[in-house]
């Protein structure tokens, strides 16, 4: 067995390539099978959160569109129409089990604002307590490039961290992460190394949700992964790179992850009960506490601090706070309490933290020894 344990709180992400492989139609048989498996988990006192793509595909179907719209207005209109239809499908399927579902549409702002972050977490925990199925999607109808996640892989990882899940299950239309040049599924990954990343670089294909394909210029800051593939499926974006990025986020908070084929029989049940399926990704140890998980992965960075080797050593090896004398360059236009990336002279990101000074003030005071730390160690995370 890959994981040697049974999981109790699970975030399941289903992508568009699984539930709408024809881009403008939903495959009900896969959703029915998914709900059947969730019902069995509920009967065993498991907790499940569903992150579901498919809104744009539903909207395309209702609008009679065969090709995915390219302009933002049309995409958001399709998402607005389709999200309602997608939830209606889940409601009908759950009603047969006398169960309820709840819709949560999220943007970056819901994670970056600490109060909203905690409110979302409290709502989800209450829904889980009442055995209702939270169905989460990005709020495509209001999202702009500045506040979009881009695909539901990253969103699902952040939700897993938010609720303290012990498993993130990404159900796709592939059997797992393949070892090249053949298509042998890698059963277990203990660390996402450059070699592991190279596999997805050669096999990436679009899959996910969101309103537009990513290009290299939209790569998440500090991800270290290859750029996302251009979309070739009419209803999908994303790929294996975005899945590995999501798994890195989840793993940092101690959440195990599995990539599996959602078309395989009982793939959800097999994953939850520790049977061999797909590719299992072991979580990092030790895992981060809730606040530091939020700093590391729940907030977009607003700038960068380039530090010298002495400061890097003090942060990593001695667990010190970041002082002004160790900072060489300041990039960005951040304010006090914003989250910034900390990089070495080779521009390798190794930490993130909440700053006590604005970028403007740091530039003005550069070279001076300040009484207050630039970033206190309690607000700093080594990645």
Percentage of residues in helical conformation:
25-40%
- Give the class from helix and strand content and strand pairing: alpha/beta
- At CATH's second level, what is the architecture of the largest domain? 3-Layer(aba) Sandwich
Q: Low-confidence parts, pLDDT < 50 over ≥5 residues? A: 202-238
Briefly note the CATH topology name of the largest domain: Carbamate kinase
Q: Specify the CATH class of the largest domain.
A: Alpha Beta
Give the neighbour order of strands across the main sheet: 3-4-2-1-5-9-10-8
Radius of gyration, CA atoms, in whole angstroms: 21 Å
Note the overall shape.
globular
What is the CATH superfamily label of the largest domain? Acetylglutamate kinase-like
Number of domains: 2
Overall average pLDDT: 84
> Biggest sheet, open or closed, and with what strands and sense?
8 strands, mixed
Order of helices and strands: EHHEHHEHHEHEEEEHHEHEHEHEEEHE
**Count the helices. How many?**
13
Portion in strands: 15-25%
**Terminal-residue CA separation:** 29 Å
Structural description of this entry:
The protein is of the alpha/beta class. The protein folds into two domains: 283 residues, 3-Layer(aba) Sandwich (Carbamate kinase); 82 residues, PUA domain (Archaeosine Trna-guanine Transglycosylase, Chain: A, domain 4, Roll), CATH 2.30.130.10. The strands form three sheets. The chain has an eight-stranded mixed β-sheet, with helices on both faces. A five-stranded mixed β-sheet has the order 12-11-13-14-15. The relative contact order is 0.13. About 10% of the residues have low confidence.
């Amino acid at each position: 067995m890959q994981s040697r344990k049974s999981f109790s709180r699970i975030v399941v992400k289903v992508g568009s390539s699984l539930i709408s492989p024809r881009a403008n139609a939903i495959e009900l048989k896969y959703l029915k099978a998914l709900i059947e498996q969730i019902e069995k988990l509920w009967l065993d006192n498991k907790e499940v959160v569903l992150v579901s793509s498919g809104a744009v595909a539903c909207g395309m179907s209702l609008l009679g569109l065969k090709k995915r719209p390219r302009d933002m207005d049309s995409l958001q209109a399709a998402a607005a129409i389709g999200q309602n239809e997608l939830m209606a499908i889940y409601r009908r399927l759950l009603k047969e089990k006398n169960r309820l579902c709840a819709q949560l549409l999220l943007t970056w702002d819901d994670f970056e604002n600490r109060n909203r972050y905690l409110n979302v977490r409290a709502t989800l925990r209450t829904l889980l307590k009442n055995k209702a199925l939270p169905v989460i999607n990005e709020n495509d109808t209001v999202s702009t490039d500045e506040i979009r996640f881009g695909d539901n892989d990253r969103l699902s990882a952040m939700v897993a961290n938010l609720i303290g899940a012990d498993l993130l299950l990404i159900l796709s239309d592939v059997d797992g992460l393949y070892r090249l040049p053949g298509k042998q599924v890698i059963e277990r990954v203990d660390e996402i190394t450059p070699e592991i990343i190279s596999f997805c670089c050669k096999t990436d294909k679009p899959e996910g949700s969101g309103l537009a394909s990513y290009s290299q210029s939209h790569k998440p800051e500090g991800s270290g992964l290859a750029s996302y593939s251009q979309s070739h499926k009419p209803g999908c974006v994303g790929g294996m790179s975005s899945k590995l990025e999501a798994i890195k986020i989840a793993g940092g908070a101690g959440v195990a992850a599995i990539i599996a084929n959602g078309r395989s029989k009982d793939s959800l049940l097999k994953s939850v009960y520790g049977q061999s399926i797909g590719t299992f990704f072991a979580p990092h140890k030790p895992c981060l506490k809730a606040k530091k998980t939020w700093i590391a992965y729940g907030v977009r960075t607003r700038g960068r601090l380039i530090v010298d080797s002495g400061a890097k050593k003090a942060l990593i090896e001695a667990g010190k706070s970041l002082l002004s004398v160790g900072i060489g360059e300041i990039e960005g236009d951040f304010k006090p309490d914003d989250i910034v990336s900390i990089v070495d002279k080779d521009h390798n990101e190794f930490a993130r933290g909440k700053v006590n000074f604005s970028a403007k003030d740091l530039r003005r005071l550069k070279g001076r020894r300040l009484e207050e730390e630039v970033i206190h160690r309690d607000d700093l995370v080594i990645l």
